[in-house]
Structures are given as structure tokens and as C-alpha cells.
Amino acid sequence: MANITKRGNSYSIRVSCGYDSKGRQIMQSMTWKPDPKMTPRQIEKELNRQAVIFEEKCNMGYQSKAVKFEVFAEEWFESYAKPNLRNTTYERMLQLRGRAYAAIGHMRMDKITPRQIQAFVNTLSKDGANERTGKPLAPKTIRHNLSFISDVFSYAVKMGVVSENPCSKVTIPKGQPTEKKIYTIEEVEKFLTLLNDEPLKYRTFFNIMIYSGFRRGEMLGLEWKDVDFENNVISVRRTSNYTAKQGTYTDTTKTRRSQRSLKFPQEIMDMLKEHKAEQDEQAHKYGDKWVETDRLYTKWNGEPMQNGTPYFWLGEFCEKHDLPFYGLHSFRHLFCSLLVHNGVDIATVSGAMGHSCISTTSNLYCHMIGDAQAKVAAAVSNSLNFHKKKDGKNTA
């Protein structure tokens, strides 16, 4: 309820709008001055009306003139982000708060301009932005920072706090494009040969990655009921993820189209059967200590394998055998590259990769697709030249 105080010939109307992220009460106020010709009865009636109108405006969005970005962003986290975003996305947004709050957290929502947000984004592409390496932030990280601010403003527009999202006019600096690192065929052949001497669990893990392009979370989320040994098919139905707050947990796939099924060579399925038999033997060995999760990839006691385990194992393996280390995601790039360069159409590639739409595949792998299309054109050209020469010879 509004608090009204008389000050000389005017009245101060104050309304409580809750509390900020530090527990401090947020108060909004306005001053109303009555017409000198008004009677006391008229003043009382109009004053109460002004108080009701002002309180309603405050309840609709803290009266956008005064709410600051940090205060409203915390409301967004609690009211929208927490119940609607995937856990991994929510955790990432929490980590991005520091930079954004330092730059614009103290500013009123309605006073933040595209130029100010552009200036903030530009600083992220400068040397020193990455405190660990002293280099600029990666373009993807810069996009995440801008997306956080934009999502807060989009919510503010819906809540009536501001009239438009200033981030719509902001451009991310191009920066220096980085080429995706992909293993060569020779390196992959060497990798698979050396892998034959490693534990069966990792042999199956990396063979499946190479033959499927599955994401790390999708690999770790695989369960034995997802494996169809009769038809040599493995299906992605869930992911295994990790956050500092929740630890390892099971989640839905990244998008609906990420749920997909791929057929595998018989040798891969035979290797999986051996892995299953080995896992069953291990479960029998540990008895009551074994935790039944149905996962293909587990810790010693059957609990889901930690997300970082395959990454660190691969790093040690590559170092031991003097192989380049490009990380787990490089096998996904390799899978896409092999499909594209063997003439698989873009719609099929997109489905196999589990992308939400074909444009995602085109945007991410435009360079590969361009090279493949150039080879197609060259092949057609060579074929036509061959026929021209042949026809010329016959004519002569």
C-alpha cells in the first residue's frame, strides 16, 4: 500500500517494490502537487486516486524509470531462467553475470542504449578480455554474453519494463575466424590401431563417436536399451550432463531432432557385445556395491561415468602416442566431414548430426560444404571435357 506524506504544498507518494539481490528494499516515489483552487475534499479524493494509479504502475514493472539492470536480471533468473532453461544453460548464464553487472548492472533499464551495450561487447574482443590467456574472448563466448543481456531485455519488454530490446541493434565483432581442427584419415587410422590395445570401454566409446558424431553428453547418456543388436542400430534418447551445483545428472537431448537412430557396422556391434559381457562380469564381481543404471559407460561401481573422464583419458592417450589432441568434439567434425566429402546430401547430414534444422548444419560447416560442392562442379566439368575430347576425336 502506498505511503503518503505531506511536504509543504505537495505530497510525496512512496511504494515498496520488493527487495533487490542484496536484500535491500526497493522504494519508488513520486510527488503530486494539488491545484490551489481545489477544496480539501477534492485534494483527498484526487490524492488517493494518484496513489492507486502510481502503485499499479509500480506493480507492473517497478516503474521502469528506476529499476537497474542487475536488480531486474536477478528477477529474470528467479522468475524465468530457473524454471525454463536447461540446467547447463542456466549455470552458464549465472557465470556470465559478473562481466555484465560490472559494465551495466548499475544502470537503469530504460537508460541503457545500444551504443553502451556495443561498447561492452567490443571490449570482449580486445586483448586481455580472457583473464586466463590474456587474449580476446572466443566469438562463441562473446555471443553468450550478449545473449544473456538480450534475454533479460526480452523479458523486460514482456513485463512492460522497457519498450524495446537495445541488443537487437548490437553487432558482434567478427574477430579472427578459427578453422575447425579435424584429424586426417591417416591420423584416425593410427588412432584406431593404437586403440586396440586399450580397455574395451574406451575402444567402444571412441569407435562409436567416430562412426556417429554423437555429442559427449549423448554418448554418456546411452543405455543398453538404446542398443538394437538385431538391427545394428543405436539410438540417442537422453544426455548425461554435469553442473557444479547438481553434479552428474540425466537430461533431455539438446533439441527434439537430437533424438535419432543410426546404423553401425557389424564389427562395432560385436565390440559392444564384448563390452556388455565385460560389464556384466564386473557387476557380478562387485555384487551389492554395483549400482544398476543401464548405462554403457560407467564408473567402477556402475554409476554414470563423469563427463570429464573421456576428455582427460583422450588427452593422456594422445600425449602417450604423440598424436595431436583436438578434444572430443573434433570427432563430431570428422564425422560430418566424412559425410560431406562422400557426397551425402545436406538434409541427411543434418539429421545424422542431430541439428535442429538444416541451416544449422550449413552455417557450421559451410566451408566443408563449399569445398565438396566445388569438387562436384570440377567432376562435372572434367566429365564434360572428356566427352568433348571424345567427340572431337570421333569427328576427326
TrEMBL record:
Source domain of life: Bacteria
Gene Ontology biological process terms from the UniProt entry: DNA integration; DNA recombination
InterPro entries in UniProt: CB, DNA_brk_join_enz, Integrase-like_cat_sf, Integrase_catalytic, Integrase_recombinase_N, Integrase_SAM-like_N, Tyrosine_recombinase_XerCD
Keyword line: DNA integration, DNA recombination, DNA-binding
Annotated ranges, domain Tyr recombinase: 178-378
Record GO terms (molecular function): DNA binding
Core-binding (CB) domain segment(s): 67-157
CDD domains: INT_ICEBs1_C_like (cd01189)
Record function comment: Site-specific tyrosine recombinase, which acts by catalyzing the cutting and rejoining of the recombining DNA molecules.
Family: Belongs to the 'phage' integrase family.
Stated name of the protein: Recombinase
Organism: Ruminococcus albus SY3
